[in-house]
Design brief:
370 residues; alpha+beta; Butyryl-Coa Dehydrogenase, subunit A, domain 1; Butyryl-CoA Dehydrogenase, subunit A, domain 3; seven-stranded mixed beta sheet; two-stranded antiparallel ribbon; 16% strand; globular
């Protein structure tokens, strides 16, 4: 396993940094998060049309670029560093991963091109009313009559209030299925206030909403979709951790106390060195999981669980140190340290907390009973 980036991957990262440096300044990120959509439409257009960020993991036959989930992870890491809100996680990760598992080729051909070009914003209604992303069901039920209809409530739906295409996980009489909502206007959205203002989530209520089945036996598909989601969030967390480290090192070189920069004090050097260890080990875990996702390796479930647990803990530690080493300014609204702190706690719970994935990993490795 070689994590040396190829020339194409390095060029992708370089382009992303250039675009985000221009379009995702601190003020721009805050304006985007406060906007009606929750993201900067111009930035999303540049990312989707000029860089092809939404198309990377989608095969060429469906209008995608034909790369892998590893390249999507590089994009998410860059977005995590900039803290820029975009619908990439909801649409190009959850939405695309769900559609790629559709049983019917016609469904993939119909839905994926719009997601790939960024003109369609998709999302996946999955978490139940307890905020759990289960692979054996959800808070929605699907009933077949003259056609399939969905009833119930899905919570914590990323970009759920503004999505053009809503996919849904629903319990069926035979188990659990994956559905496409036919009438998104019949779904009742309610925005859910989030700790991280750069992540928009909503509660969606379904009352006999017409739907089309994409996969009726979706247990195995949902397990893989969950793993891909864990990899994506881990990459996002790595970028944010790097941002916290960089801003802390910069501040420590500027802040003067007792006639010298505080970064020259040995105790603070040690703490920043520990932050670096957290960032680099998290990157290793996230990239290893992204490599497994991109190559279809059999060890994806273990690597995804390990990455989400490790990266969640690492970002929480880095964010805490970022606040501590900045002092009082870090808890003000004007400073970006508070955005790093909020991102750490929000993504730490997204798709399950670290302790849940440590338990899953222990079970997969045979260390505890299944």
């Amino acid at each position: 396993m070689d994590f040396s980036l190829t020339e194409e991957q390095n060029e992708l990262v370089k382009m992303l940094r250039a675009v985000l440096d221009r379009h995702a300044t601190s003020a721009a990120v805050r304006d985007a998060a406060a906007s009606e959509t929750g993201y900067d439409a111009d930035l999303w257009r540049v990312l989707a049309e000029e860089i092809g960020a939404a198309s990377l993991a989608i095969p060429e036959e469906y209008g995608g670029a034909g790369f892998t989930w590893f390249e999507t992870g590089l994009v998410l890491e860059a977005l995590g560093y900039s803290l820029a809100p975009t619908p990439l996680l909801a649409s190009a990760v959850l939405g695309a991963a769900a559609v790629l598992h559709a049983d019917d080729e016609a469904d993939r051909e119909r839905l994926l091109p719009g997601i790939a070009e960024g003109s369609t914003i998709a999302t996946l209604a999955w978490a139940d009313e307890q905020g759990r992303w289960r692979t054996d069901g959800s808070g929605l039920t699907a009933v077949e009559g003259s056609g399939w209809t969905l009833d119930g409530t899905a919570t914590l739906v990323l970009d759920g209030a503004g999505a053009d295409t809503i996919l849904a996980v629903a319990s069926t009489p035979a188990g659990v299925g994956l559905f496409e909502v036919l009438d998104t206007g019949a779904v009742e959205p309610a925005e859910t206030p989030a700790m991280d203002t750069t992540l928009r989530v909503a509660t969606l209520t379904f009352r006999k909403v017409a739907a089309r089945p994409l996969v009726l036996d979706a247990r195995a598909a949902l397990e893989e979709i969950r793993d891909i989601a864990l990899v994506a969030v881990s990459c996002l967390q790595v970028g944010t951790a790097q941002r916290g480290l960089d801003m802390t090192v910069e501040y420590a070189g500027q802040r003067v106390q007792f006639g010298r920069p505080i970064g020259s004090f040995q105790a603070l050097k040690h703490r920043m060195a520990d932050m670096l260890v957290q960032v680099e080990t998290a990157r290793t875990a996230a990239w290893a999981a992204a490599w497994s996702a991109g190559t279809g390796a059999a060890d994806l479930p273990e690597r995804a669980a390990m990455a989400k647990a490790w990266c969640s803990d690492a970002l929480e530690k880095v964010a805490s140190e970022t606040v501590q080493l900045h002092g009082g300014i870090a808890i003000t609204w004007e400073h970006d340290a508070q955005l790093v702190f909020k991102r750490a706690h929000a993504t730490g719970e997204l798709f399950g907390p670290a302790r849940e994935h440590r338990r899953r990993l222990q079970s997969m490795l045979g260390l505890v009973p299944a």
